[in-house]
Design brief:
Blueprint: E1 4-12, E2 15-20, E3 27-30, H1 36-45, E4 58-63, H2 65-101, H3 106-113, H4 117-124
Parallel strand pairs: 1-4
Antiparallel strand pairs: 1-2, 2-3
């Protein structure tokens, strides 16, 4: 069975320096975060007595909170914006269909919804 490892990454002079909690003294570095797991696996391969199967080892990367916190906030906001866009599209479509069923022309629907009459037609007939 492969081990579970936590790679702690710290940014220093353009490099990510990486230590592994479960293997004191194991150190590696890389330019990019997406390379950390491969670098840790390569380092573990040098120590078969510690990890017999580095390719299947579970490696999680822990990055300093002052870096990850704003990135997590940005990801959450992006996800919320994507969800809001989905809801807005549904509302626009439902409204265009409703107004069209009441006999309003596409130009008026477009004006009310703040879109072109062509977009209003697409929404109403979707």
């Amino acid at each position: 069975m492969s081990g579970v490892y936590t790679a702690r990454a710290t940014r220093e002079e353009g490099w990510w320096t990486v230590t592994v909690d479960e293997v004191p003294g194991l150190f590696t570095q890389t330019r990019r975060l997406d390379q950390i797991e491969d670098m840790v696996r390569d380092a573990l391969a040098l120590f078969p007595e510690i990890e017999a199967d580095p390719e299947n080892a579970a490696i999680s990367t822990a990055v300093e909170a002052d870096i990850t916190a704003p990135a997590e906030t940005a990801r959450q906001l992006r996800a919320a914006a994507e969800q809001a866009q989905i809801e807005a599209t549904k509302a626009m479509t439902a409204t265009a269909k409703l107004l069209s069923s009441r006999g309003l022309p596409y130009r008026d629907i477009g004006h009310l919804l703040g879109v072109s009459f062509q977009q209003a037609q697409k929404l109403a007939t979707a």
